[in-house]
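Subject: Sanity check before I submit

Could someone independently write out the structure tokens for this chain? I want to compare against mine line by line before I put it in a report. The sequence has 205 residues.
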Amino acid sequence: MRKPGSMKGLEELGRVRLSPSFFMRDFLYSEISVFYGIPNIPDNPDLAIAAGGMLCREILEPLKASFGDLSIRSSYRNTAVNAFGNENDLNCTNSERAKGRHVWDHRDNDGHMGAMACVLLPWFTDKYAQGADWRSLAWWIHDHLPYSRLQFFPKLCAFNISWSEAPERHISSYIAPRGVLTKPGMGNHAGDHGDWHQDFPTFRG
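---
Independent answer below. Compare away.
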């Protein structure tokens, strides 16, 4: 598919189905794009569709099947939107690091395809508001899903979650206890963490 050059072309891109529950249009909305008038259109739609499809099928569909409703807070950004966000302190990492993450239509610097979305699960957002520890959800995801990077935020316990051809299996958080929860090489990385999520829904992959 060529980069859309018209509203109709963008409409057709939005109709592309990435998985049973998700379409490309679900991921194109960006507050930065809307407010500052920077079109959030992929330079390479085919790569964005391929990477986004893997994110949806391997990560988001099992989350939705297991927890019910899933809300997308932020997801795909093209390089222009991401660069503007980074340069203006709008919670975007630099565009080189964002490739293969929020910038779906560019491979990362090692040539790997990947995609990231910031999502929240209302089921857990309610538990978090009542004092639940973010680490319980982190360990559930670690034990069940082929994620690459996972990062938690204080507002609503939203989290970045990514799929990659070369998964890093790295979890960090801005919620206390802040910092890295686990990564390859740490003693807590392997094994079962079921004691953290005994009251969670059954995994439905």
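---
OP: Matches mine. For the report I'm noting this point. Residues 184 and 190 are 8 Å apart (CA to CA).
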